[in-house]
């Protein structure tokens, strides 16, 4: 009988020793995010948080999983819980800003991006995403500054050139916009919207019908159907 009790005790000890740690559960969740299994990832993060309620990275990553499923309110709640425990990391502020950006709550997004930037001004993505939010709010000059900061760090960032061009057009700077849009299509020749804006601006600002029509044709060939109206009216298509 003593031997049997000892065996049961040993079995219980082995089971406890084999239980995954909060870090192992967290890493399993990260692996599930990388493979696109977001619901499974959330389950692992919840288990990690249950073991360690102060695991801010698990709370933040849980928000990322919800974000990837486009469940932005749930994502924001997860980012909030991470921030409440530790407000020294830029990541949950940046991620919460992204969720607000997707929801069209641009002012809230910018507030979060500003705070994330104050915590880590070396993060280039903060400048770019804040620029997108500012552009949506028609704060063109500030958006241009953020896209410039992005391009200082990455001179081949095609979307930064494209959005900078849009901001410059909004700020009545067509010549600067042409330069930015030319860089945009140089670095991404599949961006139909960039070819469209480039063509329209060449025609309206410089009167370059031939060049403008050529870019509009490329835009239409890439599936950007707004180009057809300009082609039909000005290019004899």
Automatic annotation (TrEMBL):
The keyword Cell inner membrane does not apply. The keyword Acetylation does not apply. SUPFAM superfamilies: TPR-like. TPR repeats lie at residues 22-55, 56-89, 90-123, 124-157. Residues 1-19 form the signal peptide. Keywords: Repeat, Signal, TPR repeat. This is Uncharacterized protein. It comes from Anditalea andensis.
């Amino acid at each position: 009988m003593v031997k049997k009790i000892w065996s049961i005790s040993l079995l219980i000890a082995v089971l406890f020793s084999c239980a995954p740690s909060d870090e192992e559960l967290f890493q399993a969740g990260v692996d599930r995010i990388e493979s696109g299994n977001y619901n499974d990832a959330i389950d692992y993060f919840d288990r990690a948080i249950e073991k360690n309620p102060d695991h801010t990275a698990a709370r933040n990553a849980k928000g990322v999983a919800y974000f990837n499923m486009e469940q932005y309110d749930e994502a924001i709640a997860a980012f909030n819980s991470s921030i409440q425990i530790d407000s020294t990391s830029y990541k949950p502020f940046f991620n919460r800003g992204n969720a607000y950006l997707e929801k069209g709550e641009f002012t809230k997004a910018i507030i979060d991006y500003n705070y994330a930037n104050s915590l880590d001004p070396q993060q280039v993505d903060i400048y770019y995403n804040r620029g997108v939010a500012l552009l949506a709010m028609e704060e063109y000059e500030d958006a241009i500054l953020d896209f410039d900061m992005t391009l200082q760090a990455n001179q081949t960032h095609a979307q930064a050139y494209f959005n900078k061009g849009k901001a410059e057009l909004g700020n009545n700077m067509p010549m600067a916009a042409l330069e930015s849009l030319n860089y945009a299509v140089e670095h991404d020749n599949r961006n139909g919207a960039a070819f469209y804006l480039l063509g329209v601006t060449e025609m309206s600002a410089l009167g370059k019908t031939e060049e403008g029509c050529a870019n509009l044709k490329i835009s239409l060939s890439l599936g950007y159907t707004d180009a057809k109206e300009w082609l039909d009216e000005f290019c004899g298509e």
